[in-house]
Amino acid sequence: MSETAVEVVRQHLIDPEICIRCNTCEETCPIGAITHDARNYVVNPGKCDNCNACLAPCPTGAIDSWRQVAKASVYTVEEQLTWDVLPPQRDLVDEPGELPPEVVRIVALASAGQGGASPPPWSAAHPYVNLYTVAKPAVATVSGNFRLTGDGASSDIRHIVLDFGQSAFPLLEGQTIGILPPGTDAHGRPHHPRLYSIASPRDGERPRYNNAALTVKRVTEDHDGRPVAGVASNYLCDLAKGDSVKVIGPYGTSFLMPNHPGSNLLMVCTGTGSAPMRAMTERRRRRVALGEGGSLMLFFGARAEEELPYFGPLMKLPKDFIDINFAFSRVPGAPKRYVQDRIRERGADVAKLLADPDTYVYICGLKGMEEGVAQALADVCREQGLDWDAIMPVLREQGRYHLETY
Ligand SMILES: Cc1cc2nc3c(=O)[nH]c(=O)nc-3n(C[C@H](O)[C@H](O)[C@H](O)COP(=O)(O)OP(=O)(O)OC[C@H]3O[C@@H](n4cnc5c(N)ncnc54)[C@H](O)[C@@H]3O)c2cc1C
Ligand code: SF4
Ligand code: SF4
Question: Given the CA of residue 26, which atom of ligand 2 is nearest to it?
């Protein structure tokens, strides 16, 4: 490095727009590098040694935020505590002193690899975030809770309607809210919040009522199949009409739907990943008479028909409104089919949508599904003479490819 070069460091930050103020990172950090006030959780640049121990436990990914900054002008704790949004990556050559070209190149490469969420669609409505916090949650009343999965189904997935009463709780399709389960964990600390996608459109489960619906799966075993009673999902699934629930949020500034007429939605989901797809589909259904139409294509995977939330209502939607493709993986006597198989079967129509600059792609469901779906989309493009490797970055850059898995 030349004598005039600025020493550059990778500063660990927390995205205040995504963070749900759950305190998990502060409890996890082994050296006390995370602190907070009533507004923000922040990382102390003088303490953090980039050990990454806090990344995996963060339920939102807000902790996985980084900026390349000149060492002499890192963002201080005091500065970070005033933020509502993360500052953009500073142009490092504007820092005092000259950067040698090799440092500029390395910095550019490091930023390119950071990835992160896509921008929202250009016509998405403005999302409100962080209106209610752990310290000041909204209190909603349960106005409905019924089982969506069939009697013989192995999973208990429920449609839960929350009424926000006099509290303003503006929501957009694709956003999530946080639920604060009552009680404490094994260490005597309040349970941390869990996120749930909104399953109803922005004007409410019942239009013009101040309410919203959730699609919640009761967790009875962990990811390895061992019996366990999930704290928040069991709490929610057991709620009765009239019960009160503490809610924080809303969250989400990226996985939002386009508002302009003629935009197409290509939706791929499994299980409760159907919640945002239901919200978007219902928004379009209510707006179609106003000319907001465009093509809707849905790929929906489940073990069997009775395990699939919203199977009945989906079947009633007109075929010229939405093109629905189910994939069932555990039907006795039938071959296993996954969403990626159905995408390949419908390759010509999927490729036609992907080639349309007005198509927006949404993928939501189990962690790990993204790889299979992306591979299927790549195969479909190749077969139809399109270059997925060229299309994919453009989709992301233009806010037309959104993924949410958990
Ligand atoms: C952005 C986002 C959106 C989400 N949207 C929804 C939604 O719309 N509907 C919904 O039901 N859930 C949704 N989730 C998952 C939800 O936040 C909880 O993680 C889930 O309900 C389990 O919480 P719990 O308190 O019941 O289980 P915990 O008490 O937190 O966990 C108990 C055990 O179960 C395991 N486990 C956690 N989640 C699951 C799971 N989903 N399946 C199997 N095992 C699990 C854990 O590893 C742990 O071992 C979403 C998560 C994210 C990050
Ligand atoms: S959401 Fe992530 S960054 Fe925010 S307080 Fe919780 S663990 Fe920390
Ligand atoms: S990276 Fe390590 S040191 Fe830095 S805040 Fe996270 S846990 Fe603490």
Answer: 8
